[in-house]
Amino acid sequence: MLVLSRSRNEKILIGDNIEVMVVDVRGDKVRLGIIAPKDVPVHREEVYIAIQQEQRLKDEAEERKWREWAERKGKPCS
């Protein structure tokens, strides 16, 4: 892990098209501003984990649906 020190209004650049700026520091809270292309998702960790869990549940439900369909048709699923 790369660890960098930045002060308020200083930036970190990631590649050619992502900027992370320290907007404010209050106590133990740091506010960050992030500029990234629209095709690059940016989430807080807890939101990202929730999205992944939701997608996994949808994928599992879809897999069950196809397995049940195959079983009704008498076709084994691997």
Walkthrough of the structure:
With 78 residues, the protein is an alpha+beta fold. Helices cover 37% and strands 26% of the residues. It is built from one helix and three strands. The protein has one helix at 45-73; strands at 11-14, 18-26, 29-35. A three-stranded antiparallel beta sheet has the order 1-2-3, with no helix packed on it. Strand 2 and strand 3 (29-35) form a beta hairpin. The chain is elongated and about 65 Å long. The model has no long low-confidence stretch (mean pLDDT 93).
Q: How would you characterize the largest beta sheet? A: 3 strands, antiparallel
Which overall shape is indicated by the principal axes computed on the Cα atoms?
A: elongated
User: Which sequence of strands runs across the widest sheet?
Assistant: 1-2-3
Which percent range fits the helix content? 25-40%
Beginning-to-end CA distance, first to last residue = 40 Å
Uncertain stretches:
none
Count of runs of 4 or more consecutive helical residues? 1
> How would you state the average pLDDT, rounded?
93
Question: What is the compact description of this entry?
Answer:
The chain is 37% helix and 26% strand.
